[in-house]
Amino acid sequence: MMSKDLWEEEAIERFRSYLGQARSCSFIITGRDVIVDPISRENFDYKLTSSTGQMLAVEIVRLVESKEELVSSKIWSQIVDELKKELIKRGISGYVISLPLHLNIPRREIHQYVNQAADIINQSIVTHQGIDQFSSNQMTFYRIPNYEGVSFASTPEARSINPHGTAASALLVKLEKKNRQLSIQEHERILLVVNWTIIVDETDMVRALTTIPFEAYPNIDTIYFETRPSQFSYVYDRAAYSSILNNDHTGSPHPELLSHYLKYRLADGKRDAYTFVRTRTECLGSITWLNDELARQNLITYVVDGEETTEEEQLWVIRTLCADPDPDPEGKIA
To answer: What residues contact residue 143 under an 8 Å CB cut-off, 6+ apart?
Structure first.
């Protein structure tokens, strides 16, 4: 058995502590690098056993961007942090400024670059006084009235990069192997994603997972996401995913994740989400169960804009929501 990396040992200890609180029982490590295939030597990272006898197979993966993106992102963030401080000293505020992500500035030259960039930014603002949007020296400026401060973005349109796309891309290249590593029965098979990016949060991760075809990865039962050290979120539930995919209303999937999955799949124009919502609503006689306001809005958008939808389906959504126009504020999922 190979020794585990320090970051893995630290991550499983944090996760063990979290599970103990979340599930009201203690967990101990009863195996490391547990072999699931004696020929290929595929294995999962940790076996946890609870004080009640439940067995968990945990495979850990780091969520990282490509090495090149990771280096560029770190340098960009350092430059932006120093630029903000320098611009505050100079009394500059009220702008969002796009700055190229790939600056190719050696670390030893960052301080010099920041001073030069601050001079350019200051002169550009003076030159374009009162103009809401302008470009200068590979930077695009957006004047924001009543905004106290300066913000930076890494795209020409002053929008941040796509965090859920980053998460989906980073996971997809690893899921096939992780699925093989969790090929074991009589265990809850958990993928623990440890976040090493600076742009992905819990919402981004849930959004990313709704775009992944998990029917191709049947050995992954649940996914937990550690956004920051010791900040864990339950982001994937196979029962909820399968319920939507198969229009199955016999189980008891995680209600919050079910609402999130429906919200995002409706936004992506997925027919299975509409079919599930309609079937469940007709079975229950009301749509009060769908208490996520954005999910309801996405349902309307789907039937209005969807190429597959019919006039009858549009009328059904109108009638259904008119009969129950507002979600329960106490049950609303943000």
So the answer is: 94, 95, 130, 131, 132, 133
